[in-house]
Hints:
Helix content: 10-25%
Distance between the termini: 53 Å
Order of helices and strands: HEEEEEE
Structural class: alpha+beta
CATH topology of the domain at 24-90: Thrombin, subunit H
CATH class of the domain at 24-90: Mainly Beta
Radius of gyration: 19 Å
Shape: flat
Strand content: 25-35%
Amino acid sequence: MEFGSENILKKVEEKILKAKDQVKIYGRIDNISSVYITCYLPDASVGDYVVIHTPEGQRGGEVVGFKDGKAIVIPYDGTSGLSQGMKVENMIPRNTQKVGFDLLGRIVDALGQP
Length: 114
């Protein structure tokens, strides 16, 4: 077993990359308009699927842009009932749909729901 600095750095890098896949990224709602919300959301990209955590449960949304360093999110179920400071979770890995013969002939919406 080698204990050289390169070997140690490789092991550390491997552990960091494995842990990165298990990290959840959260932000908070900063402002609410009639159609969209703005929130502080680290590492967000346009098209990311997000989950807004409310006292009643979870609501989905999508990052559609950025303004003044904040993500602009359109909630799928509207903005009513949302309030400033609510937790927003960026769903990484991004929402993907497996494709195969089971999907052939099925009708699904944009989220892959039948």
